[in-house]
Amino acid sequence: MMKMTMENLTVTTLDPEALRSAMRAWSAGVTVVTAVHENQRHGMTVNSFTSISLEPALITISLRQGSRTYDLVSKSRAFGLTILSSDQLRISDLFAGREPEASDRFAGLQTETLVTGAPLLAGGLAWMDCRVIETFDAGMNMLFIAEVVAARSLNAGEPLVYHDREYWNLSHFK
User: Could you confirm whether domain 29-155 is CATH 2.20.25.530?
Assistant: First the structure.
């Protein structure tokens, strides 16, 4: 495994508010990334998720360094990813920290595991169980490149979509 750093990159400093404003124009599906290490589990809402390759099965996520989820993923070298359905807005807010912090964000939620032991949230549209194969230090975040070791999907339902700091319904255009 190779840990890449930003030492070899030339980075121009941009006002974070300018970038934040521009990124509000990007619509994205909503996921929850979860991890467990030494009987501690945590998760966070993430929309910085991308499929990289089908063969081999690779995805990437970005987590804020120092967050509880980042710490657990770094230690366990594994994570679960649940793609949320449109009726899981409350779960997205819970894992985004928009509700009062509970000692256990999973309290009252149904979970299951596949291969790595990372918890996956019931009610999602799809689930991926992943093992970290590389990391890239990306400023305040860490980019995790991971092998998908197991995946399941419902092949039905509407995704939860986030755009301009709000949740949206998805309409089909034909």
Answer: no
